[in-house]
Structures are given as structure tokens and as C-alpha cells.
User: What shape does this take?
Amino acid sequence: MQVLKTVAAFRAARAARAEVGDLGLVPTMGFLHEGHLSLVTRARAENTAVAASIFVNPTQFGPHEDLARYPRDLDRDLRLLEAAGADLVFTPEPAEMYPPGFDLSILVGGVTDVLEGAVRAGHFAGVATVVAKLFNIVQPTRAYFGQKDAQQCVVIKKLVRDLDMPIEVIVAPTVREADGLALSSRNSYLTPEQRAAAPVVFRALSEARRLFDAGERDAEALRRAILEALSKEARVAIDYISVADPLSLRELATVGRQALASTAVRLGPTRLIDNLLLGDARA
Ligand code: AMP
Assistant: This one.
């Protein structure tokens, strides 16, 4: 496994691999867990070579968010990536990605004004811009993202489509703890009490799925069920509860074939997001 810190070094390493063939890319912010590694394993199975990136992208954090304390452990991440079968790992510093004079922001319209975009101003411009740069640097055949960040997946699919990038975007299922909590690097912030409360998020979304499977199609009834389930845990502060169209992310009145049920909550200072697709068993 080669670890490259600069764009030039990454390009040289990629070019030196005569028979790269299909290249799968797994972009991450590090502090890796089984969710990230499931993407690397999938990329390994579907490509002849696998690249991962580890970059805590400052431009996708708001001024009052957790950039400075975002968890990092590069040595451990590299051991895990090597064991999972990564060939190339790109680990740039911020100055490599945003050198003096850098002045670009990619605004993906429509799907970025709602949900996370409504709460985290500028977040998806930061995501779209850094992912576009990573795609240009790595030039993957396929790129792998987790359903855990459902809106991010929608934004990146739109980015690739609108910029005619020749990249297949693959969305892989959310990996969860045994009690349903979606794995997240940010779970490391939780106190034992907050960790014990956190599975309420999955329970609440599962309740919406149960009602949907039992025939409920009134989106407001599904939102209310999520609210009631979340309200059982006093430690949880709710940012939003959504039952939306999975492609446009617009809130639904009536659910047709499919909907994305999603929520963002705060447990103390830690923000957790999660979602379930209703009408689709894969996520
Ligand atoms: P992050 O390091 O949080 O930016 O995540 C990097 C990639 O891993 C993103 O595509 C995430 O959606 C994905 N990811 C994060 N958590 C999970 C999870 N629990 N299951 C599957 N994928 C995940």
C-alpha cells in the first residue's frame, strides 16, 4: 500500500501502476470504522485497484462545528486500510488541497437547501468541491459512499451527472452496531450515558418503517411516529425529522413507492444523523 500526501505524488503513483484497470475510490475523513471498511471491501471486490482518501475537509465544517476536535488517528487508519486491501491512500494537508489563491466553490442546486443543508450552511458546497477535486486527482472508475449520509449521496450523484464525470457512484448500506446505532467517527464523542441513549434514533426510524410496512402512507403520521419515539429519550434534541422523496429530497404528503425517512438529533454537543429508506429493504 502506498501513502501519498501530494497531488503530484498521487498522480505519479497511479501512473506507475501499469495495469491499474478499474480503480475504486473511498473518500473518508479518517478515524475509520467498519462502515468505512465495508466500502473498501466492496471497492476491492468490484475493482482491480482501490484508493482511499483521508482528509478532514475544513470547508465542509461551519464556524461553530467540530473541525478542531474531529477525531484523528492516521497510523491506525493506515493499518486498517492496508488490512482491508487498499492499494493507494491519499492523505493531503489542507494547504495541498487549498493552496494560496484557491477560489472555487461548487454549488449543487435544489437538493442542498433542505435537511442537512438547511441546518449546516455551506456544508454541501464544501463537500461537492472537495469531492470534485478528489475525483479529478484520483480519476476513479467507481466511487463508494455510505447510505448513512443519504443527502450527501444524492448531492454527489447530481455533481457527477451535471459535470458529466465518467464515474459510477455506488451507495453501500449503513453499517450499524448491534443495538442499531449507525457507526460514525463522531460516536467517539458520546459519554456512556449519551451512548446508551443514542440507539433511540434507529428505533424511531424503525418505527416509521414498521408503520410503512403495515400500510401507513400518510407522511405526517410517519413523521409523528418518529417524533414520539425520539421524545421518549429526554437527552435528545431534534434538529429535523423528514419523510421525503429519495431523489428530490422534498417533503412528501403521501408516500408512494419509496421514501427516505431521516433525522438529525443532538445528544449534548454531538450531532447524529441517520436514515432508513422506506419501501426498500437494502438500507
Ligand atoms: P466520513 O469519514 O464520515 O466522511 O465518511 C466517509 C464515507 O463513509 C462516507 O461515504 C460515509 O457515508 C461512509 N460511512 C460513514 N459511516 C458509515 C456507516 N455507518 N455505514 C456505511 N458507510 C458509512
